[in-house]
Amino acid sequence: MKELIGGPGTVCGFILRVAQCVCAAASIGVMVSAFGFSNYTAFCYLIASMGLQVLWSFGLACLDVYSLRIKRDLYNPVLVSLFVVGDWRPVEGETCNSLFHFHERVGLEKAHKPPNR
Q1: 38-59 residues labelled b (16+ CB within 10 A) or e (exposed)
Q2: Is residue 1 part of a domain?
Q3: How many domains does the chain have?
Q4: Residue 109 and residue 101: Cα distance in Å, rounded?
Q5: Which residue range or ranges hold the Casparian strip membrane protein domain (predicted)?
Q6: Of 44, 50, 109, 115, which is least packed with CB atoms within 10 Å of its CB?
Q7: pLDDT digits (tens, 9 = 90+) for 23-71
Q8: Is residue 3 in some structural domain?
Q9: Alpha-carbon distance 108 to 117, whole Å?
Q10: Is residue 82 part of a domain?
Q11: What is the rounded distance in angstroms from the CA atom of residue 32 to the CA atom of residue 10?
């Protein structure tokens, strides 16, 4: 397979995984610090999804370190397919949860709005 910048088992890939893990952890911190976050089910699911993202990114960062230490590439087609599906799945879940949270919030705002006279 052709070696790509930021691919699995490269220094750039390791840096990107660490950045992904840090951003997911920071977003969890921001969401948890919001007042009343536990009142919204979709918000709680989004936090859980981001927690899984942190674990996935950290695990792949550790795999990158291992690959760099033993100087072996990770360009196995089956392994790369696993990375693609593993990276794609949390993004889909986070997007669906965000949209659900938006619709839940808009529905609450409409419910509390006084009728026009």
Answers
A1: eebebbebbbebbeebbebbbe
A2: no
A3: 1
A4: 12
A5: 8-88
A6: 115
A7: 989 989 988 888 888 887 777 888 888 898 899 999 989 999 999 999 8
A8: no
A9: 20
A10: yes
A11: 33
Does 6 reside within a domain?
no
DSSP H helix total and E strand total for the chain: 3, 0
Burial classification of residue 90, based on how many CB atoms lie within 10 Å of its CB (0-12 exposed, 13-18 middle, 19 or more buried): buried
The two structure tokens encoding residue 20: 């992904």
3 state DSSP class of 89? helix
* Residues spanned by the domain of 19: 11-111
pTM, entire model: 0.71
Q: What is the dihedral of CA 26, 86, 4, 9, to 10 degrees?
A: 80
CA–CA distance, 87 with 65 (Å, rounded to integer): 18
